[in-house]
Design goal:
single chain; about 475 residues
């Protein structure tokens, strides 16, 4: 297929499926926590705006959750089909970690998800809020186990190699490996930011069309407060993550910076732009800022970072890709900080609801969080190459013994099916957003006990055209 080898096709196939999958758990993590906050605000204040927003976003959460589960199952099977030698080598560690996710996060979510989605008037407010909180907790636990497994592949420890296989010797070291805390914090905060941007963009879309209902204004305001406080925190976490990468994966950092060699005693410049050329072993058209690389990457004026020429060519990541994927992530992060600061300035001037240019900017930034997550993920995973388990198992030795034709055919099928199935799902989510929050007449029964309504919320029938201009019935 297009002259690609079986190894390259296997990597593309896994990269394609995980790129589809990762956006759904990210939104799920953010929305679950957002729903918990909305229900807590509703229970505390009894303001109907929080209740209406909860009903609206819970429908979007339900559809997104389903697509995340389906896409994740496909990805898990690829460990056995396309990466069997990796499974044989490291399965004694990655297998249990994924099993712990099922035993904790999936069971927790399965136990409370139905109550959360369909129990608004079937159970009391306390139990329903507990269910929402437990689902949110489950999404974070799921992320914890997944990132523990992936972080171990980046910075492995707590193991021994016996008969050509990895054997765990210290599970605490396996789980809390050197990069795990930074990667967990970075990914979790990224999920919150991506969700805040989607919520803000949804509100901006309605505001630009003259829909200034209390629910629209509230979700617009909440999303911008989230961005204002959390985007700078993400920058700090990213800096700490960079220092960790410098210590444990120096070749990755050198590739990210497009830094080929250290010359002289001066500090390392920051290459703002350029084109890393792997064959010529140089970054062409480089625009450099003297010493700034040392200041950012080592927190010292004269610090040195490893250069790509210090590593054998076979051990170098593809700098051309990770150089730009990293800059896309950082550039979008700076725009998120700018968006938060602009919103604060408009609040101070009392023009947050009137500034159409700001609302257009917020709308355009809607997908920025997800794009930044994908760019960061590409940086992390491609930057780990040529290793599947860093320093232990090369990617070329991890792939199954399939031919290029087999992998080319399956990749083509994945392309068609994924764009058809998940394209339809994403289109449906956009229809839900277009409908917007609607007033719900019904609520918890006055006595706080189970209500008589037995009709579920029906997230899969919530975007009918008849809802666009009518308030939603109480028993929905």
């Amino acid at each position: 297929m297009l002259g690609l080898t079986a190894l390259e096709l296997a990597r593309i196939q896994f990269g394609f499926t995980i790129s589809f999958h990762i956006i759904f758990p990210a939104i799920t993590i953010g929305l679950a926590s957002y729903l918990t906050v909305l229900e807590a605000c509703w229970l505390r204040t009894q303001r109907t705006v929080y209740r209406d927003l909860y009903h609206f976003w819970s429908k979007i959460f339900a559809v997104n959750f389903g697509m995340g589960v389906v896409s994740g199952l496909v990805m898990a099977y690829q460990f056995g089909t396309n990466w069997s030698y990796f499974s044989d080598f490291a399965g004694s560690i990655t297998g249990p970690l994924l099993a712990y996710e099922v035993l904790t996060a999936f069971f927790l979510e399965a136990g409370f998800l139905g109550v959360m989605l369909f129990g608004w008037k079937r159970v009391g407010p306390g139990l329903h809020f507990l269910s929402t909180a437990m689902v949110a907790l489950g999404t974070l636990i799921s992320a914890t186990w997944i990132l523990a497994s992936n972080s171990w592949m980046q910075t492995p420890q707590g193991f021994a190699i016996i008969d050509g296989r990895v054997v765990p010797t210290d599970w605490l070291k396996v789980i809390f490996n050197p990069s795990f805390p930074y990667r967990l914090a970075h990914m979790s905060v990224a999920a919150f930011l991506a969700t805040a941007l989607l919520v803000g963009a949804s509100a901006a879309w309605h505001l630009l069309r003259g829909n200034q209902t209390p629910a629209i204004r509230k979700m617009f305001s909440m999303s911008l407060w989230m961005l204002l406080f959390v985007a700078p925190v993400q920058a700090v976490i990213g800096d700490l993550h960079g220092l960790n990468t410098l210590e444990h994966q120096p070749a990755k950092l050198a590739a990210i910076e497009g830094h080929w060699e250290n010359t002289g005693e001066k500090g390392t410049p920051l290459t703002a732009f350029g084109w890393p050329d792997m064959e010529r072993e140089e970054t062409r058209f480089a625009v450099e800022i003297p010493r700034l690389g040392s200041l950012i990457l080592t927190h010292s004026w004269d610090g040195k970072i490893p250069a790509l020429k210090e590593f054998a060519p076979k051990d170098r990541p593809n700098s051309t890709i990770v150089f730009w994927s990293f800059r896309i992530m950082v550039g979008l992060g700076m725009l998120m900080i700018l968006l938060g600061l602009w919103s604060l300035w408009l609040r101070w001037r009392g023009k947050l609801w009137e500034s159409r240019s700001f609302q257009r900017f917020t709308l355009c930034m809607g997908p920025a969080g997800l794009v930044a997550i994908l760019a960061g993920w590409f940086t992390t995973e491609i930057g780990r190459q040529p290793w599947t388990v860093y320093g232990l198992l090369r990617t070329a030795d991890a792939v199954s013994a399939h031919g290029a034709l087999q992998l080319g055919v399956t990749l083509s099928i994945f392309l068609v099916v994924y764009f058809a199935v998940f394209g339809t799902g994403i289109g449906y989510l956009m229809r839900l957003v277009r409908v917007g929050p609607e007033s719900h007449e019904g609520d918890y029964p006055e006595d706080g006990g189970p209500g008589q309504d037995r009709t579920p919320m029906r997230p899969l029938s919530a975007a009918t055209e008849s809802h666009a201009n009518q308030p939603e019935p109480a028993r929905s």
